[in-house]
Amino acid sequence: MGFLAADSEKARSEGIINPVLLEVKRQLQGQVSVFSGEEFNVQPESGLTGYVDFLISRSPEQLFITAPVVVLVGAKKEDLKPALGQCLTEMVAAQRFNQQQQTTATIYGAVTSGTVWRFLKLSGQTAAIDLTDHPLPPVGIILGFLLWMVQPEPGAASER
User: Fold this and answer.
1) Alpha-carbon dihedral angle through residues 87, 89, 94, 100, given to the nearest 10 degrees
2) Tens digits of residue pLDDT in 107-138
3) Where in 22-150 does DSSP place strands (E)?
4) CB 73 within 8 A of CB 53
C-alpha cells in the first residue's frame, strides 16, 4: 500500500481505489463490470453529462456501460464534503440511465480520497448520506460495503 502516501488524486485512484474495485469484481467472479474515467452522458438536456471517476454495473458486459448501474465512486484528493453533491448528481444520472433501460435498482455512491470513504444511497426520490468516514486500511470493511451494494437482494432481481 505504498500509494497511501501518494499526494495526487490520479495516483490514489490508480493505486488504491481501482484495485479495491477490481477486487470486488474478482470476488464476484466477473459478474459485474468496473469502469474508470468513462463518459456517461445520460440526459444532455438536463445537464447529466460528463465523465465518472468509477462506475460499477451489475452486468458482466465490459465493452460499454450496461444497466443496471449500481455504484458510482468519486475520487477526491482531500475534503470529501464538496464531492457529495457531484456524486449525488452522478447517482441521479445512473438512476435515469437504468430507467431508460427499464431497470430499477437502488443506486449507491462513494466519495473517497482512497484512505477515507463515505457512502451514499439513492432509492427512488430519497437520498441518504452516511455521516461516518470509513478508513482504509483495513480494506475488509470497504470491500464488505461494496460487495453488499452490488449484489441484488435474494428474490429481488431488479430492486434493492
Assistant:
1) 180
2) 999 999 988 999 999 999 999 999 999 998 89
3) 33-36, 54-57, 69-75, 107-112, 116-123, 126-129, 134-135
4) yes
Distance of CA 142 to the CA centre of its chain: 12
CB burial of 7-42 (b: ≥16 within 10 Å; e: otherwise) equals: eebeebbbbbbbebbebbbeebeeebbbbbeeebeb
Grid cell, residue 45, equals 438536456
Amino acid at site 37: G
Widest distance between CA atoms in the chain: 44
Return the sign of the alpha-carbon dihedral for residues 103, 75, 32, 64.
positive
Q: What is the pTM of this model?
A: 0.86
Q: Which fold has domain 2-150?
A: tt1808, chain A (3.90.1570)
Q: CB burial class (10 A; 0-12, 13-18, 19+) of residue 121?
A: middle
